[in-house]
Amino acid sequence: MPGELRITGVSKRFPGGIQALDDVSLNVATGEFISLLGPSGCGKTTLLRIVAGFETADRGEITLDGRRLDKVPAYNRPVGMVFQNLALFPHMSVAGNVAFSLNVKRRGREEVRQRVDAALALVNLSGYGPRSIHQLSGGQRQRVALARALISRPDMLLLDEPLSALDLKLRRQLQGELKRLQRRTETTFIFVTHDQEEAMAISDRIAVFREGVIEQVGSAQDIYRRPASRFVAEFVGETNVLSAWRNGEDVLLPELGLTQRAPESLASVTGSFLLSIRPENVSLAAPAGEGLSGVVRETEFGGMTLRAVVEVPGLKSALRAAMQADRATGIEIGKRVSVQVNLASAAVVGGA
Amino acid sequence: MIAPSGLSASPLARLLLVTPKALLVAIFLFAIGTVVVGSVRDNDGNFSLALYDELVRSNTIQILTWRTVKVAGLTTLICALIGYPIAAFIANARRRNLLLVLVISPWLTSVIVRTFGWIVILGNRGLLNNLLRSLGITDGPVRILFTPTGTILGLVHVLAPFMIISILATLVRLDRRLAEAGMSLGAGPFETFLRVTFPLSLPGVLSGCSIVYLLASGAIVTPILLGGLRDAMLGTQIFQEIFALYNFHRASALAMVLLVTSLVVVIPIQWLDGRLRKLSGA
Predict the structure, then answer these.
(1) Distance between CA A279 and CA B241 in Å, rounded?
(2) Residue B157 near residue B114, CB atoms below 8 Å
(3) Residues A132 and A28 grouped into a single domain
(4) Which of A16, A35, A104, A154 has the smallest number of Cβ neighbours within 10 A?
(5) Nearest residue of B to residue A51 by CA position?
(6) How many folded domains does chain A comprise?
(7) Are residues B126 and B43 in contact, defined by beta-carbon separation less than 8 angstroms?
(8) CATH 3.40.50.10420 is right for the domain spanning B58-279
(9) Each residue's pLDDT tens digit, A295-320
């Protein structure tokens, strides 16, 4: 199976001096579903467009299955693309759109018909061929764009935030379909998104971008549990970033006035550093007893979980906590509660 | 009349908006009505279809009409052929506004001056013929001035900007990603143009054709000065009937012929244009 992409040292500066990409390297395995995640303007779309052939890199090398892609024009790359606004051809029917790449290759009429039917069936749009693009719903257009890009069996599919225009429920549903489609076609998918939940939900691996640089590459769990930087910790999921320092066997959290025995995961850390502590590792109990306590300022009931924001004296930003909802009795706005911090799964996200 | 959305126009505001439009429509209808009525009168003011009878029989009128359709049609075709590449070039150029000023520069000089410029170039002892002779390509002068060719040249010069701007307007509005989608699906630049960009820009071409055809078929100054009086067109003939022969009724009848032939050409173009625009969701 082809579809192995190697990006080595790619840089791109736009006229006007914006450094869109700065020495970016990334390897994507065959059949992998990787997301490029980052806030807008971080370079993720630029990288996708360079891979597609719509932009050229100033420096660096891109190979697909060992062959240099850089000099190959966009229309000769074995790469499909789904655009942010889908870019369906408005003057063609659904079948006309899907058949486009086969018609370009001058395939026979019977072959085109069969493959269009198969491609439409793949995205659950059988029988929609004669319809006009304007008669379709947002989700249906999405699937037409997928069928159009996949019909010529590209080695790799690039997706540029294709779900961003859809409402949440439909987005969830299409995320699932995308994932199944990717497994069934065994095609490498590179998915650009600014939505960290979306990236975590569908990808095998995530590359987190920030200002033209990849901050971290890893599975959703890796990135969530062991963020490589403060930026990644705060961008992917919610977190509390606290300054800490090491004192012998202990870890001190001066903002909270806490001293705790260093867990094994922090055994090798010395000096002062920053800790990312996820909300689920901050536990609250009512009523407040001895030790650290704070006042609940906000609560958010999410069915299975309850999220709370607690104001703790000495801490500039409030502390975020999350717990199972059925264990959250007495956690109400305005109440004073006791706060416990579990450092076992805290991650070091830089020196202080 | 379109009221600004979000504001529910009061009855008074509506009345104020409708009045000027009604006035325009009334004046327009009055003018057309006068021409229609004038065309079915004889010189004593009595009802008569004699003029139309003459028009139908007259060989010269048929020649005149046919020549008008031919000159206007060729002008439109040439405008489209040279206008499209220019519009496409400007649409992709960085200094779009500067190029646009160059395109409309023919409109910055008066019709008379511009047309005399062509006389200087095209005349028997003009620049073009001198050049051809000195290069030994021709012996005698090539007759361009005072032929339909001269008229067409002059008309293309004035009317091409309408075509270019009309095509440019659709090209600029076209989503660049559509062309990129074509490329990502394996179509090279030329094939992408044929399958995507060109079909989607056809409404602009058709609008341009309507405008250019209408203006060319009713043109007066350029055909008189560059085409001469011998190869008259409907527009120049109407001008003659009014200002040389004072035959207003005949001028009216000729105007009706011009109106009808123009509608016969332009209405199908407009219909197709509307269909295409609806199809491409513009």
Answers:
(1) 92
(2) yes
(3) yes
(4) A16
(5) B184
(6) 2
(7) no
(8) no
(9) 999 999 988 899 999 998 878 888 99
